[in-house]
Amino acid sequence: MNKILLVLAFILISFSSFGQYKEQFRAMHGYEMGIDKGFFGINFTGEYFPLNYFSIAPSFTFFTPATGNARGFDLNARYYFTEKERQWYTTVGYGHYTRVYEFNPIGRESFNSLNLGGGSMIKLNDEIGLNPEVRYQLGRNDLLFKLSILYFVN
Questions:
Q1: Is residue 127 pLDDT above 80, yes or no?
Q2: Which of 11, 23, 49, 81 is the most exposed place for a label (fewest CB within 10 A)?
Q3: What predicted TM-score, i.e. pTM, was given to this entire model?
Q4: Cα 2 to Cα 4: distance, rounded to the nearest angstrom
């Protein structure tokens, strides 16, 4: 319970921060699908740029298995190669995944992982865009596809 409160506090702090002139903040809501596990997930992400071309992106995902529940927390660093209408990036970071089983003697399992991947930001207008991303989680051994709607806060 304390971990969940800590994660929620971190996400709220990241949503309330404001970037300065050269810094940006983005908020994203997306959907995630894992290849190996096959769970559909609802994702919330904040992204803050402390430096040009470099961002920190914490995210929280609620997965929807048939029984029980699953959730994931990721803290990724992104490096952007371009800054035009299509922004390409690579990402590396930490992931934590927890799966709670219902009616199963396993009970609960947790995985820590190293996230490696990439994606893009496609601007639709000055405030809204799309964020497709592919990420592999070493440790959990799952390939994730994510598609998000993003809002450019500043």
A1: yes
A2: 81
A3: 0.78
A4: 5
